[in-house]
Design goal:
There is one protein chain. This protein has a single domain (11-171), classed as Peptide deformylase (Peptide Deformylase), CATH 3.90.45.10. It is 28% helix and 25% strand. The chain contains 3 helices and 7 strands. The chain has a 5-stranded antiparallel beta sheet. The longest helix has 19 residues, at 153-171. Bound molecules: cobalt (II) ion. Cobalt (II) ion binds at residues 95-97, 137, 141.
Amino acid sequence: MLREVITYPNKLLRLKSDDVVQFNQELHTLLDDMYETMIDHAGVGLAAIQVAIPLNVLIICLPNEEDVQDKADLIEAINPVITHKDGEQVFTEGCLSVPGFTEDVKRAQSIVVEYYNRDGEKQKMECDDFLSVAWQHEMEHLSGHLFIEHLSFLKRKKFEKEWKRKLKEQKK
Ligand code: CO
């Protein structure tokens, strides 16, 4: 089932999410709905708080070499923790909760992350480049932060001005 993606400046996006304690059907339904919603919005990642559920749950599905989002590549992560970060990279990011806006963000080049899959089995992944960016971006949602917080003071001011204008136009 498709869920509504909440967008900036919805205050829910500032909530710190809680750990999942039960790996039950409700969690599986949430994960299935998040996947459907992410694909419907042409996104490559989604955190549960973006569908207004404050739980430490995120999904990532990057396009493969043929530029296809294959469900076989879907990562479902419950209660993820980044245990190691290394290096630096700058990547142009976007976010389904800040639709239509992209900006360069500096993050770690490579990370190690530990998490649980939908069945509560512990997983560990080492990754770099785009996948590492996606992980760090989605993890930030779980702590109640957005990628626009990385912008310089002036870029952020410009963004806020443009965003307000856009919201006003949508209300008309
Ligand atoms: Co996002």
